[in-house]
Amino acid sequence: MIDKRVQPLARDAMAYVLAGGRGSRLKELTDRRAKPAVYFGGKTRIIDFALSNALNSGIRRIGVATQYKAHSLIRHLQRGWDFFRPERNESFDILPASQRVSETQWYEGTADAVYQNIDIIEPHNPEYMVILAGDHIYKMDYELMLRQHVDSGADVTIGCLEVPRMEATGFGVMHVDNKDVIIDFIEKPADPPGIPGNEDMALASMGIYVFHTKFLIDLLKRDANDPNSSRDFGKDLIPYIVKNGKAVAHRFAESCVRAELEKQAYWRDVGTVDAYWQANIDLTDVVPELDLYDSNWPIWTYSEITPPAKFVHDMEGRRGSAVSSLISGNCIVSGASINRTLLFTGCRVNSYSQLDHAVALPEVIVNRGARLKNVVIDRGVNIPAGLVVGEDPESDAKRFRRTESGICLITQAMVDKLG
User: Fold this and answer.
1) In the chain, how long is the greatest CA-to-CA distance?
2) Distance of alpha carbon 179 from its chain centroid, rounded?
3) Which residues of the chain fall below pLDDT 50?
4) Is 303 labelled as part of a ligand binding site?
5) Is 351 annotated as a binding residue?
6) Is 91 annotated among the ligand-binding residues?
7) Which of 35, 204, 335, 417 is surrounded by the fewest CB atoms within 10 Å?
8) Dihedral over alpha carbons 378, 380, 383, 389 (to 10 degrees)
């Protein structure tokens, strides 16, 4: 008989990704798509990181709950994540809010998004459930978190970041004892509790939870019958377990996947225009904090069939060049100068134009003589010839979405109003 203690626990787990949120702080970037479907890193979407972590960890049963403006997300999942095979005991379920419990009820919270699909989860018969947020950038081996969950005998294990204590005021914060058992869970505290032995740091929730499936289903059913519940993991289920059961913190640094040159545990919530721009631009560093080139932990995605990137013209003032930049397939840089910039698939940058610290989503066209600095350009935008952005703050703020730190978000609707 095989000793189950030496088998990967991920084989008996199901990953359930909560991907229904809008992400309103990304402003116009989420007008047409949910936050998990927003493009990131030149080729991928934000949700690809949680899904890739699950796949690379050995999990072969995955569900994705969608709700807000889900078409772009669902199309991406269908195109890029359709390789799971039922005959190998694999599954990939896309679970839009479809009023399965009531004809008037959509997903009312993160817990309800799981509760409404219990009848889909149960036939897969997973022993463990790994509940994931679909809107963060990080690399993590969930097998290590599963192992801690089993070894500790916890009812729930919660993925946690170690952050400076007073930076934890925007998170759900774990108050733990010296064995990382959670004795209190406080949502967005004004005075976060420190970590025993390291009081200047706090443990902030990553929105990652591991449960035994039977325990979770019983818990969801109890919560669904509570008229006072908001149907949310962080607000309702986790505080209930902390009070009535055993909740244990899992520190991200213990399961973060790092390539040789990655010195720090990397996790980002790219939930604002500034944070989104910064995380993308950081990838242009000579040695970025996040290594997308690590073949041992690939970030899977939908890979379009495209021709190579192309650079043309070689004369003074009209030289197709890119420095410290990420250029995707089917891009043509025609006599333009590009610095610290990401061009997603299918971009065209025409002669005498300049891009500096720019994030250009797929199929952007930059016409002749444009100068753009510190910008995020939405998909398919046609930048007019001679447009200048990033040199006159007052003018930028009147025409585009300009953040306090000076990053401009440009959409086609904004360009159309220029006249």
Assistant:
1) 74
2) 29
3) 1-3
4) no
5) no
6) no
7) 417
8) 10
**Which of 35, 30, 28, 23 is closest to 401 using CA atoms?**
28
Name the CA radius of gyration of the chain, rounded. Answer: 23
DSSP classification of residue 181 = B
Please, are residues 329 and 304 in contact by the beta-carbon 8 Å criterion? Answer: yes
Tell me the residue ranges of DSSP E strands in 213-344. Answer: 247-251, 267-268, 310-312, 314-315, 318-319, 321-323, 326-327, 332-334, 337-339, 342-343
| Spatial contact of 361 and 39, defined as CB atoms under 8 Å apart | yes
Nearest to 390 by CA among 382, 377, 412, 381: 377
What are the backbone dihedrals phi and psi of residue 61, each rounded to the nearest 5 degrees, phi first?
-125, 120
Give me 366's structure tokens: 């930059």
For 80-101, what is each residue's pLDDT tens digit? 999 999 999 999 999 998 665 5
- DSSP class of residue 245 equals S
Check the annotation: does 266 bind a ligand: no
pLDDT at 187: 87
Strands 337-339 and 354-360: parallel
- CA-to-CA distance for 95 and 112, rounded, in angstroms? 12
Q: Which pair of tokens denotes residue 173?
A: 């914060």
Q: What is the DSSP letter of 408?
A: E
Which of helix, strand or coil describes residue 220?
helix
Q: Which amino acid is at 35?
A: K
CA distance 265 to 282: 15
What are the tens digits of pLDDT across the range 358-402? 999 999 999 999 999 999 999 999 999 999 999 999 999 999 999
Q: What global pTM score does this model have?
A: 0.95
